[in-house]
Specification:
Blueprint: H1 2-5, H2 21-46, H3 50-78, H4 83-109, H5 113-136, H6 142-164, H7 171-192, H8 201-231, H9 236-256, H10 268-299, H11 307-333, H12 341-355, H13 358-380
Length: 381
C-alpha cells in the first residue's frame, strides 16, 4: 500500500524528455488565472487606479506563478503519470480555477477569500506529492522531500491565519503579505540545501518556454479586440494598435527563443536565478497585454486616462520583459556588446512614449531583435 503511494525520481539524463499532455493542460488552466489577473490590471489602469492595480496584480500573479513553478519543477523530477499523480494534478488545477474566479472580487473589494482557498488547495496537493516523493526516496533524498512538504504546510498555515485575521488592507497587510511571500520563496532554498532534486534540465527549459508562448499569446487577444472594435466602424488607431501588438509580441517571442542556451548548467545558484527570475518575464509579458487593452479602451473612449498613459502601460512592461530576459539569460550567455543590447533597448523603450506613439515601441522591438542577433553572431565569429 505504501509503495503504491510513493514516487521515485526520474532519470535526469532521460533522452527526449518532453512536456506531457497533462502538463500542457495544467499550463492552460494556470494561464486562465494569469489572464484574469491581467484583466484586473487593465481595468485598474484604465480607471486611473495605478498603485492599487499594480500591487493587486503583483499579489495575484505571485500566487499563480509560484504554484505553477513549484508543480513544474516537482513534475520534472517525479512525474510517473500514475492515477494518483494525475488526480493530485487535477486538484491543483481546481485550485488555480478558484484563484481565477476570485480575482475579480480581489480587484474590486480586496476580497482574498476565494484566492486563498484556491491557493491553499493547490499547495496542500503539493504537500501530498512531496510526501509521495519522500516515501519513494533513498535515505539521502528523503530529507529534501520532507523539508518541502513541511515548509509548504507551514506557509499555508500562515496564509490561512492572515486571511482570517482582522488586519485591514493597507501598509501592515502589505508587510505581512511580503513576509508570507518570502517564507514561500525560502522553502525551496532550504529544502534543496539538504540535497538537490533530480529535475531534468531540457524538460524544465521546454516547460518554461511553453508558458512563455501561452502568456505572450494572451497579449494577442488585445490585438484581436482592437480589430473587433474597428470592424464595427473603421478606426485607423485601432488597426495601428492591432498591427503594433502583433509586431511587439512576435519580437518578444523572437528575443526569448534565441539560439543561446537558456539554462546551460544545473548549478544551484544558476538554476534558482533562472527559475525565480522568470517571474519578471511572465508578469511583464502578461502586463503587455493589459497595456494594449488599455490603449483600446482609450481609443474607444472607455478609459479615464490619456494616450501617453496607455503608451507607457505598454512600454513599461516591455522594458521590464527585456530586463528580465537579460537577468535570467543574456548576462550569462553573451559577451561583449551583445550582453548589453537588451538593457539599452529597455531604456530606449521607456523614452519612446515621451516623443513618439505606440508604433515607435514596435519599431524599437524589431530593431532590438536584429541588433541582438547581429551582435551575438559577431561575438561568436
Amino acid at each position: 500500500m505504501f509503495k503504491r503511494f510513493s514516487l521515485r525520481s526520474r532519470d535526469i539524463h532521460e533522452a527526449h524528455r518532453a512536456a506531457t499532455p497533462l502538463e500542457l493542460l495544467f499550463d492552460l488552466v494556470s494561464v486562465i488565472a494569469i489572464a484574469s489577473a491581467a484583466a484586473g490590471l487593465h481595468h485598474a489602469i484604465a480607471e486611473a487606479h495605478f498603485t492599487a492595480g499594480i500591487l493587486k496584480f503583483a499579489a495575484a500573479f505571485f500566487a499563480i506563478w509560484w504554484a505553477w513553478m513549484n508543480y513544474t519543477w516537482f513534475a520534472s523530477a517525479y512525474d510517473n503519470d500514475d492515477v494518483l499523480f494525475r488526480l493530485l494534478t487535477m486538484v491543483i488545477m481546481g485550485g488555480a480555477l478558484a484563484i481565477a474566479a476570485g480575482i475579480d472580487g480581489f480587484f474590486a473589494a480586496t476580497d482574498l477569500g476565494l484566492i486563498v482557498i484556491g491557493y491553499v488547495i493547490m499547495r496542500l496537493a503539493m504537500v501530498a506529492l512531496w510526501l509521495r516523493a519522500a516515501g519513494g526516496a533513498d535515505r539521502a533524498s528523503r530529507p529534501t522531500a520532507l523539508w518541502y512538504a513541511g515548509g509548504i504546510a507551514i506557509a499555508q498555515a500562515y496564509w490561512v491565519t492572515l486571511s482570517l485575521s482582522p488586519v485591514e488592507p493597507g501598509r501592515l497587510f502589505c508587510v505581512l503579505f511580503i513576509f508570507g511571500a518570502i517564507l514561500e520563496l525560502a522553502v525551496p532554498a532550504v529544502a534543496e540545501s539538504k540535497g538537490n532534486t533530480s529535475w531534468h534540465r531540457h524538460h524544465i527549459i521546454e516547460r518554461y518556454g511553453l508558458l512563455t508562448i501561452i502568456v505572450l499569446g494572451e497579449t494577442l487577444l488585445s490585438a484581436a479586440a482592437a480589430l473587433e472594435n474597428s470592424a464595427a466602424g473603421y478606426n485607423s488607431s485601432l488597426v495601428t494598435i492591432a498591427c503594433s501588438a502583433l509586431v511587439i509580441v512576435c519580437s518578444l517571442w523572437w528575443l526569448y527563443f534565441s539560439k543561446e542556451e537558456h539554462l546551460a548548467t544545473t548549478d544551484g545558484f544558476r538554476a534558482f536565478t533562472w527559475g525565480y527570475g522568470h517571474a519578471v518575464v511572465y508578469a511583464s509579458g502578461a502586463a503587455v497585454g493589459a497595456g494594449l487593452a488599455v490603449l483600446v479602451d482609450i481609443v474607444t473612449d472607455h478609459a479615464e486616462v490619456g494616450l501617453r498613459v496607455g503608451n507607457y502601460a505598454v512600454a513599461l512592461p516591455v522594458a521590464i520583459y527585456l530586463i528580465g530576459l537579460w537577468f535570467v539569460r543574456d548576462r550569462f550567455a553573451l559577451k561583449g556588446m551583445a550582453r548589453y543590447v537588451l538593457p539599452i533597448f529597455a531604456v530606449l523603450t521607456l523614452i519612446a512614449p515621451l516623443l513618439f506613439a505606440l508604433q515607435a515601441i514596435a519599431v524599437l522591438m524589431v530593431a532590438c531583435v536584429f541588433t541582438r542577433d547581429y551582435t551575438a553572431a559577431k561575438e561568436l565569429s
